[in-house]
Amino acid sequence: MPSRNNPLVVVIGCTGTGKSDLGVAIAKKFNGEVISCDSLQIYKGMDIATNKITPEEAQGVAHHCMSFVDPVSSSSFTSPQFTVHDFREMAVNKINELHKCGKLVGRPTTPKPFYLKTI
Questions:
Q1: Has this prediction a pTM greater than 0.90?
Q2: In a domain, 1, yes or no
Q3: 94 is a domain residue
Q4: Residue 20 lies in a domain
Q5: Where are the alpha helices (DSSP H) in the chain?
Q6: Range of the domain at 71
Q7: Which residue spans adopt a coiled-coil conformation according to this UniProt entry (predicted)?
C-alpha cells in the first residue's frame, strides 16, 4: 500500500474537461509522473477509442499503466485475464517505485474511477 506520507495527486473529472492536460502540467511543475487508472486505457491498440494521451500531449511526462493488455487474447476464456487485483498490484508497485525516486505521482481519471478505488 502507498505510504500516507508521500504525495499522491488525483485528477478526477468528466470526459473532455482537460484532466490529461492538468495532469501533465502538475507533473512538469512538481517533477512527477502519471499513472493511468482508466480501466480501458490498459488495452493496446485502442488509443482513439479510449482517448489516450498522445506523445505530443504528454510533453515528455512519463505515463504508466497504459497499453499493455492485448484486448483479443485477454477476452478469451482460455487465456489469463487481467483483473482489477492485477492492476492494483501493478499501480501500487509503480507508486512506491516513483516515491522512492522522489517523484510526485498523479493520474487523471473519470468520475467513476473503478481502478483508482482499488489503490
A1: no
A2: no
A3: yes
A4: yes
A5: 19-29, 55-58, 84-100, 114-118
A6: 8-118
A7: none
